[in-house]
């Protein structure tokens, strides 16, 4: 635990490691112990259930046997699958929890340092698709066509929403949680000022910011090409798959940040928009009218939705800021 006095404000930082990332809780108020303990235990419990890296997790069991018999899951996982299917539909299939076999194919290719053949990708693609997930009565789930599920793109958002619920029940009204680049802001600072959330510079080090957003209680989720990319044969590839092609997403989006009070939605959408690639993502944002986002492109432009434009401060003047409602992307 680390309590520090920074510009006359007392804050306490509590940290943990889960889902392959450091998670930091920053409390700007006393009496947070109970809230932290509950959040901490909930995260570890859900990691045990959702992880595809743990052979004994509920999701691993579902992936192993779900194509043969219906598997009973807990209400949390059942509801998360339900939400995932909704977001898949909403994103026209670009967010897709059934891409696990494709992820496995690319993981194997990375280990062999050899691109998979077109046929291998096409075969893995046939074992994907949200229509192959059936939600039955009594929290039972059946998978069809040998699909396997991966919650990597939505788990942190789901946890962030639950942490907010726990904080509300425990009377937390001034805190910020960083789940590995996924920021949850709760309430306001003691002086009633807004939270300043930095957007990492896509081409510089972890400490450099491209700009920052001044926000109230919400969540800020970024998917980026600098995060967790891998290389095959010297070629840099994204860890986000385009479910339409089965290949890693294009890298014309350097980073995409989605702001929404619904963290699960923000997480799913940041991944989906990244998977779409620049042109499709901008036209999707323009059509949706409900998505608030900041898109930094590999050609040093920042596309920002009108709802965030006043809240954003640019820190690198070599980027050009463009409002998404004032542009036609050809
Ligand atoms: P991060 O984990 O870096 O925050 P994301 O939230 O964008 O990034 O999730 C990326 C992870 O989601 C991948 O590692 C993979 O497990 C999974 N994934 C990859 N492509 C998709 C996709 N199109 N839809 C849903 N999940 C995906
Ligand atoms: Mg995501």
Q: Under the CATH scheme, which architecture of the domain at 2-27 and 175-326 would be assigned?
A: Roll
- Helix content bin: 25-40%
CATH class of the domain at 2-27 and 175-326: Alpha Beta
Low-pLDDT regions? 1-6
Between the first and last Cα atoms, what is the distance in angstroms?
A: 51 Å
Reported for the largest beta sheet, the result is: 10 strands, mixed
The computed structural class is alpha+beta
Bound molecules: adenosine-5'-diphosphate, magnesium ion
Task: Please trace the helix and strand order, writing H or E for each element.
Answer: EEEHHEHHHEEHEEEEEEEEHHEEHEE
Number of helices: 9
- Gross morphology: globular
Could you report the average pLDDT, rounded to the nearest whole number? 94
Within the CATH hierarchy, at the fold level, what is the topology of the domain at 2-27 and 175-326? T-fold
For the record, what is the CATH homologous superfamily label of the domain at 2-27 and 175-326?
ApbE-like domains
Strands ordered across the widest β-sheet = 1-2-3-7-8-11-14-15-16-18
Computed CA radius of gyration, to the nearest angstrom: 20 Å
Q: Quick one: how many beta strands? A: 18
Strand-residue fraction? 25-35%
Structure in a nutshell:
It comes from Caldicellulosiruptor obsidiansis (strain ATCC BAA-2073 / JCM 16842 / OB47). By secondary structure, the chain is α+β, with helices and mostly antiparallel strands. The protein has helices at residues 33-50, 58-65, 75-90, 100-112, 118-126, 155-169, 263-276, 278-288, 306-309, and strands at residues 2-6, 9-18, 21-27, 71-72, 133-135, 140-143, 174-179, 182-187, 195-200, 209-215, 219-224, 230-232, 235-237, 253-260, 292-297, 301-304, 312-314, 320-323.
């Amino acid at each position: 635990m680390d309590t520090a006095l920074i510009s006359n404000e007392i804050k306490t930082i509590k940290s943990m490691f889960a889902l392959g990332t450091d998670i930091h809780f920053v409390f700007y108020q006393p009496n947070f112990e109970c809230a932290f303990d509950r959040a901490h235990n909930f995260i570890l419990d859900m990691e045990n259930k959702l992880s595809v890296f743990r052979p004994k997790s509920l999701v691993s069991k579902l992936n192993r046997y779900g194509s043969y018999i219906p598997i009973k899951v807990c209400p949390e996982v059942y509801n998360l699958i339900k939400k995932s299917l909704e977001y898949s539909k909403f994103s026209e299939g670009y967010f897709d929890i059934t891409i696990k076999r494709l992820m496995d194919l690319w993981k194997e290719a990375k280990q062999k340092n050899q691109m998979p053949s077109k046929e291998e990708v096409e075969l893995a693609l046939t074992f994907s698709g949200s229509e192959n997930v059936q939600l039955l009565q009594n929290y039972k789930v059946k998978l069809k066509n040998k699909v396997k599920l991966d919650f990597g793109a939505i788990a942190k958002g789901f946890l962030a929403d639950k942490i907010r619920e726990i904080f509300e029940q425990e009377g937390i009204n001034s805190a910020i949680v960083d789940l590995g680049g996924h920021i949850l802001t709760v309430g306001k600072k003691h002086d009633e000022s807004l939270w300043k959330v930095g957007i990492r510079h896509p081409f510089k080090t972890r400490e450099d910011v491209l700009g920052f957003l001044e926000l109230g209680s919400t969540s800020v989720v970024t998917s980026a090409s600098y995060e967790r990319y891998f290389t095959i044969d010297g070629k840099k590839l994204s860890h986000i798959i385009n479910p339409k092609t089965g290949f890693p997403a294009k890298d014309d989006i350097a980073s995409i940040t989605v702001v929404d009070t619904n963290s699960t939605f923000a997480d799913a959408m940041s991944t989906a928009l990244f998977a779409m690639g620049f042109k499709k993502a901008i036209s999707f944002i323009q059509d949706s009218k409900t998505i608030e986002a900041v898109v930094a492109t590999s050609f040093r432009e920042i596309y920002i939705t009108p709802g965030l434009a006043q809240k954003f401060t640019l820190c690198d003047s070599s980027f050009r800021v463009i409002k998404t409602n004032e542009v036609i992307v050809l």
